Description:
The structure is a homodimer.
Chain A: E1 4-6, H1 11-16, E2 18-20, H2 25-34, E3 42-47, E4 50-59, E5 63-72, E6 81-87, H3 91-103, E7 108-112, H4 124-141, E8 149-152, E9 166-171, H5 173-177, H6 183-193, E10 199-204, H7 212-220, E11 223-226, H8 238-251
Parallel strand pairs in A: 1-3, 6-7, 6-10, 7-8, 9-10, 9-11
Antiparallel strand pairs in A: 2-5, 3-4, 4-5
Helix pairs in contact in A: 3-4, 6-8
Amino acid sequence: xxxxFFLENSxxxxxGNKISKKNNPDVFHHLKDVLRVKxxxxxxxxxxxxxxxxxxxxxxxxEVFFNRLDKLSKDPEIPVKTTIVVPLLKSDHLxxxxxxxxxxxxxxxxxxxxxYSVVKDIKIEKKLQRYEKIxxxxxxxxxxxxxxxIIYEKKFIEQAGLSDHQIGIVAWEESAKAGExxxxxxxxxxxxxxxxxxxxxxxxxxxGGISKKEIKKLESxxxxxxxxxxxxxxxxxxxxxxxxxxxLLIELS
Amino acid sequence: xxxxFFLENSxxxxxGNKISKKNNPDVFHHLKDVLRVKxxxxxxxxxxxxxxxxxxxxxxxxEVFFNRLDKLSKDPEIPVKTTIVVPLLKSDHLxxxxxxxxxxxxxxxxxxxxxYSVVKDIKIEKKLQRYEKIxxxxxxxxxxxxxxxIIYEKKFIEQAGLSDHQIGIVAWEESAKAGExxxxxxxxxxxxxxxxxxxxxxxxxxxGGISKKEIKKLESxxxxxxxxxxxxxxxxxxxxxxxxxxxLLIELS
Lengths: 253, 253
């Protein structure tokens, strides 16, 4: 499998078919020191908003030059941009969720607080740096065309709102318990069939659940509560169920 | 949330509404030492093939007695029994997969070898003991009615075969690359609509992929190759995509 890399600085590649240690230090390091590419090796580079298949042409102390073989036209991105809003989770559960969500095509990840959240937002800036690395690595590994954004919004629910082209879903266990079985399917189909909607924003609560007050606020902001089946899914599993569902219904006929 | 436990010995509960340290040591330990249940606490017990809501009535040195409040009729199991066949994976990747697959409703997990497997089956017996604990814990946590079976079959592919009521799927990246987009959906729908089929067996290869020879053998045994969308999914992610898809199409209208 040809390795894929996202360029930090696209310009030098787009104009000069090269990358430099100065402008693309991460990719340069990966190619020279990790992969140890040689002449004629193939890699995929994402520059601008396209992916290119390239062959290594020349390697110097500070630069790597390529021959551009092909512009890769396959679009690996879900046509409906899907954002997941999730709580801060314990230890490596969030690491794992972020990686898997990226493999499954998530567009954006918003970390926020819930009434019943256990983990507090201590050192969130430092954590975000690590999360960004995880997202980038997963985007490269799954051969995506964009690196999902991951941000922290302290009060997402209080400030929640949907634009005209967004469908809002909140995964709520109480819905599933009450037998709610059709909203998830309906909402994804709506996104697929009605061209007015091209984004889904899906909210997932912590282990302790989402409070009634939070549900009321989200519903009044236009979010629809949905059950995700009859089993209880952990906070880090539920978003993967949703992303798989979006992919299945929208990308696979 | 009321905790759920699978009884090792159902008989003493079904006849006597109790569990003993002697016959149900794990559950006894959990109730007394971990949860430290008191009089009137509620728990859910799975005995025989049913789940019961019970109230703690009396706690002695060797036994816990209950009042049976309700037989829980909600069926959390996917009507189509879904087996996943997966390679041995590195370190905790398999732990995660097993846990998540159980949350998502898997019926049976078969570990096997592929041509391009990296991890060998060293100390598989000891590993299976740990995997069984993980499966049981996840089944309790997700409030399932059965504990999925997890086994090791050294040569699954060589001996692969499907019964009349099984649909076989092999998740193959080459299919997805070639643009195959409809088989997964079709096969799950077939399981849903044709009562002749009530089981799905899905095969997932290792990081290095499935060899052409293995694909040929599986196809000749009745398995259908299917793409799981345009992104490359890791070996531990692809089964979760499939299980979510089965649940979405069969359990949610």
